[in-house]
Protein: CUB domain-containing protein
Organism: Caenorhabditis nigoni
Amino acid sequence: MFAALLTALIFASAFNDVSSVNLCPDGWTFGNETSYCYQISQRYMTYAETDSYCQTIGGRQAFIMSTKELTFFSYFTAGMFAQPWLAITRNTTTNVWHNSDGTTAFSTWWTTGEPSVNGDCATFKSTDKAGMKATPCYSVQPAICRQMPALCPTTTNYGGSYSRTGTIKSPGYPDQYYNNLDCWYVINSPNNTYITLQFSPYLVERTFDYIQAYDGPNDTYPYLGKTDEYTNPRYDFESSSNVVSFKFHTDKTITNNGWLLTWNAQVYSAPINQTGQNGTFTSPNYPDNYGPYTEQLYYITAPDGFHVNVTIDDFLTEARFDVLEIYNSSTVLPNNLVANLSGNATVPWSWVSPYSYVTMRFKSDGSVQKRGFEGYWFITFP
Ligand SMILES: *[C@@H]1O[C@H](CO)[C@@H](O)[C@H](O)[C@H]1NC(C)=O
Ligand SMILES: *[C@@H]1O[C@H](CO)[C@@H](O)[C@H](O)[C@H]1NC(C)=O
Ligand SMILES: *[C@@H]1O[C@H](CO)[C@@H](O)[C@H](O)[C@H]1NC(C)=O
Ligand SMILES: *[C@@H]1O[C@H](CO)[C@@H](O)[C@H](O)[C@H]1NC(C)=O
Ligand SMILES: *[C@@H]1O[C@H](CO)[C@@H](O)[C@H](O)[C@H]1NC(C)=O
Ligand SMILES: *[C@@H]1O[C@H](CO)[C@@H](O)[C@H](O)[C@H]1NC(C)=O
Ligand SMILES: *[C@@H]1O[C@H](CO)[C@@H](O)[C@H](O)[C@H]1NC(C)=O
Ligand SMILES: *[C@@H]1O[C@H](CO)[C@@H](O)[C@H](O)[C@H]1NC(C)=O
Ligand SMILES: *[C@@H]1O[C@H](CO)[C@@H](O)[C@H](O)[C@H]1NC(C)=O
Ligand SMILES: *[C@@H]1O[C@H](CO)[C@@H](O)[C@H](O)[C@H]1NC(C)=O
């Protein structure tokens, strides 16, 4: 909560020269002292109804979080006839007053002569030392609701011609994102690369809050898809070029911790296709080091009816992160993975395919490059 408030304050100061009016939805008031949005209901209600009322309009019932908020409430409610509810109640067993988040209400924020025994819920009184006042819970009073303002980050462009990887967080992550957002993010990567996006963790209100990704700098480019598609939820996307963009949309109620995006630029390289009776293959640049974020496919196709003996006689990659995957299928199919070699894989490594084709895929990450591998193949008779 505290970190979220700080973040809000930082964003708010960045927005100072813009009009702060835009930060809150219609009908809400931006609290210049706290950078939250507030609304006092027209309708009067009992304490028990107040929080659910606030949730229907996109907020939560407010208690006093700071002296700055106390100051704000005192002029926000000044001149009001009624005293609005605060989300503060007395535990009648222990006689301790608690805020709705379970914390103890701050004892010096009571108005003069309070808390009295006259009630187990609290309202806000702006006169006579502004502060909390004990009030019977069945009393009918207005609600005072609070929500995070709709703040998108001030940066919308990430990456660049020399950036190959990065992370982006949703506003306020890991505390809480805000309601009513439509934040745009554009990522650029070096020429001749494409970009993979991976949202993890992804803690976002199902269905109503989501991300939509586009294969270019804005939504006039092809649509890549949406997180939380009801039938086909996905949290990974891949662009076809070195620019990708996405929008984070949130509706007016319910938020969550948000998301962390890791993006990577991947190097294009055309698949290496080999046919005939034999051949040799190496990792890119071998015997020099392969590059970062390399992905290289190898398709070996022998004449029908033959098998393929694949032998690797030199191998060194970064253990676990730079891998050579070998498949007994004609394309990359996870269920057909025969070997996943990395690090100091034992060589010579050799295997005979059950079919007349073999697929291999080499992938490296962004750190630690090694010389890679060298191998050969030849056809064998059934
Ligand atoms: C916020 O607004 C009130 C009323 O206009 C003003 O008295 C107060 O000084 C302002 N506070 C800050 C921190 O700007
Ligand atoms: C009041 O406090 C007691 C003792 O800590 C606790 O067991 C009880 O659950 C509390 N009641 C409410 C309504 O929170
Ligand atoms: C990337 O490609 C564009 C367009 O071809 C070119 O103008 C730019 O200089 C290239 N950038 C780099 C870093 O090579
Ligand atoms: C989308 O991006 C392209 C290329 O940057 C630009 O020419 C176009 O004006 C943009 N369209 C919108 C609606 O922003
Ligand atoms: C290499 O093989 C793949 C899979 O069979 C195919 O999609 C691709 O077009 C081939 N590329 C070339 C240059 O032959
Ligand atoms: C590799 O295949 C070619 C024909 O494509 C053949 O001439 C050559 O002898 C073969 N080499 C080996 C080592 O089998
Ligand atoms: C494949 O070829 C290698 C090198 O010629 C040989 O050592 C190995 O035994 C062969 N593998 C099989 C399963 O025949
Ligand atoms: C290969 O192993 C690496 C490291 O253990 C792992 O990250 C990768 O997912 C594996 N590849 C496949 C296709 O299972
Ligand atoms: C292909 O590889 C998969 C995964 O290792 C294995 O389950 C399957 O039996 C293999 N197919 C054949 C025909 O050997
Ligand atoms: C891999 O093997 C080489 C040669 O045996 C050795 O020098 C090196 O330390 C090994 N690396 C790792 C990570 O085990």
Observations:
- The longest strand covers residues 193-203.
